[in-house]
Amino acid sequence: MRQLRDEDLILYYYGEAEDPEEVRALLESSPELSARYEALRRTLETAGEAFPVPERPESYGAEVWEKLQPALAPRALTPAPSPEPGEGRNKSLRRFRLLPFSPSPARRERGPGGEGRWIGLAAAAVLLLVVGFLAGRLWPRPDEARIAEQGAFSSEARQRILVRTVATHLERSERLLTELANAETDGSFDISAERQWAEDLLTANRLYRQSTQRGGRPMLSSLLDDLEPFLLELAHGPSEIAAEDLRDLRARLEEQALLFKMRVVSQRLERDQQSL
Amino acid sequence: METDDAILMERAQAGDADAFRVLVERYSARIFRLAYRILGDEASAEDAVQETFLRAYRSLARFDARSQFGTWLHRIAANTSVEILRKNQRQRSRQERSIDEGTGEAAPLSSRDPGPDRRALSQEVERAVRGALSDLSPMERAAFVLRHFEGRSIAEICGALGLRESAGKQAIFRAVKKLRRVLEPLYVPQANREVLP
Fold first, then answer.
1. CA gap B42, A6 in Å, rounded
2. Are A71 and A233 a contacting pair, CB within 8 Å?
3. Distance separating alpha carbons of residues A36 and A29, to the nearest angstrom
4. Pair B157, B143: CB distance under 8 Å
5. Residue B105 pLDDT > 50
6. Cβ A70 vs Cβ A229: under 8 Å
7. CA separation for the pair A67, A214 (Å, rounded)
């Protein structure tokens, strides 16, 4: 008679045994085997019952759609800029060139060609590295906002910390989005550094959104809510972004006037910091 | 009567955003459950839901009309959750290193171990299950969740996660082994009562 291993019993439990009749017969003929199977069955059933999933409200699907919709705006709203003659071999260089932010791709200025592109490439790469490094090291951590909420400070001090940390967060987020909005590419664009950056910002954004909600700052909370889908998309997206997706991102940023709103709110927070 | 998924997908592929909205509304809670079981926390599961639908939307053109929409979406969700879990684990490991180096704040031990006397058995079991699952690799965890909670066959799981059949089986065996190691001691007296008359 064949000896059954635990693996055979697991497959039998899940209805994937090669020969379930054989297993059933063996279980009926052996109390020891039957006890082993019982223990396994109980463990697996307990595991199933012991992992409750938090209930979602009936409106959950609609809420998901509401958050998702801005990120699903029609693609390729703006036509791709046509390549200049002889640009094919410089494709890999052009994709790193950053240009000053402008509200519409159609009005974007073209950068200089030839050696200027090499300089642009080098400058952009250095800038991304430096900003990415500084962003992770020098600015305040989200913990500050959480600490500010925990009651160890006076109400005024809490507001001051919240305003300062959120202002810094908005500044960092604005830089990230501006970098991407200004990047010109006709191929694919390596955004692995920005993705890591967006990942950090996303965690902070979620915390600040909750803090501002609780702190009675609904407008600020709403702005962070608008920002979140963009950070989410970048943080969990591929490490390379195609030209089409970059244009799409830029179009959506413009459509929602997100960068503009962020600048306005940042200025207001700056004033608040001075008055607090 | 609900419109069929296949019809909605056909409309969504033709650019009908409303059809895609219906699918999002129909599947969000199901995708959340899957993502939560793989990831183990609400915020990450919410991210996974959003990301799953974003990826699905971007891949509309690649959807094969002969496939089941639900299966296709679960496949995207499982892979998205595995990616997020990997990122979370990397991040946690960085934070733990930072704590070891004395540059961060240690997690409060009391929240992890509030003392056995104050815990109900069900809480202890839940903690044990979570502990066992968190010891699994993202791929093992996803394979186990898909098999145990979602009722997917091993062949389907291997197709979804890009595993060979033997690797898919091994992932599930390891998960069950870890669960048994933590859960069976909790049930020893009961087991003895049942097995020994």
1. 33
2. yes
3. 13
4. yes
5. no
6. yes
7. 20
- Average pLDDT over chain B, rounded to an integer: 81
Residue in chain B closest to A5 (alpha carbons) equals B173
**Per-residue confidence at A92, pLDDT binned at 50, 70, 90?**
very low
Instruction: Identify the pLDDT of residue A26.
Output: 92
In this prediction, residues A258-267 reach a mean pLDDT of: 84
Residue A242 bridge partners (DSSP) = A188
Whole-structure pTM value: 0.56
A44 touches chain B (CB under 8 A): yes
Which member of A47, A50, A72 has the closest CB to residue B57?
A72
Residues of B in contact with A44 (CB under 8 A): 148, 176, 179
Separation of first and last alpha carbons in chain A: 82
Distance of CA B1 to the CA centre of its chain: 31
Query: Looking at per-residue confidence, does B111 or A237 come out higher?
Result: A237
B residues 116-175 closer than 8 Å to A (CB): 122, 125-126, 128-130, 132-133, 147-149, 153-154, 169, 172-173
CB nearest to B29's CB, from A7, A52, A60: A60
